[in-house]
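Attaching the record inline, Q. Sequence:
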Amino acid sequence: MPKIWMLKCLTDEMFSLWIKKGIGTLGFKEIGDARDYETKDSLLIRCDSVYANEMPIKRIQIESQLWKFCKETSKKDMVITYRESKEQYYFGIIEETYKYLPEILEEEPNILKINWLEKCVPENKISTEIKNYLNTAATIFQVIQFEDELSNHYQALNDGNDNIDESNIVIQLVKDVYSHNERLIKKLDNIELLIVIRELVKVMNYKIKNEIEDSLSYFLDLSFLTPIGTRSESLKMFIVKDREVMQFKDIEHLLTLGTRIAIFSVEGFAASVANNINSEEVTLLDLHKIVILIFKYYDNFSVEVKGILNLKKVYI
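Structure, as predicted:
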């Protein structure tokens, strides 16, 4: 059965080359032809030798990426890539399996022949859950979730259907507005983001009792103020500062605090997080949910925060 792969392209120049030549590529030219190594262990030994100055985990990651690209991809597998500058997802089908061709591309000689579709899917048509899932640190990985949805996107493109129902133009416009503002929030620096979150919890009637910053997150100890001014609920909120999708192992230790917690991650959460938490005790706030709250409470924000957000009201 054909598999689905996410293959990341890091530059616009490389992306244009992929589309023009109908290929997908991977670096690590120093390793040579990966077909020379019959087992993962033998390939890892080669990586250990060539990249001896790298940390062991880095060498393992290189071996894993090369093995997937060269040994596990197959003809007729689907490949997805993301063009960050245009915020678009491209789909293709592998026509020829791995070849080592430094004469075609010296810096990225590991090559798959891929039939890329000319049309693409704008980021705002991909659900937040799928975007979070696809946005991992790995250069190549097999997609084992959301296969049906992604296959449907490919089929719609291949059939020449732009997947927009004219009767749902207003719904699509609303999605576009949310997506645009998600990108604006995503570009805030850590200090601006913290100012916005502080203001948001304040207008939601929470009071900050304590605030701690470490290298990984901001921690806000909150109490909810009732309309008559009494405190009725405590909530610990963690604002993740790094820009990677959160895995369950990243927050597992927070589940032992014995109190309600909320976790905000700009890049969202892996499926493993939602599958392993009690939603009554833990609230997960990805970028989309934060934007919804910002829209809801925007009129109550201070001039400073409105200046940071720089949003404009539109009427649909």
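The first strand starts at residue 4 and ends at 7. The chain has eleven helices and twelve strands.

More tomorrow.
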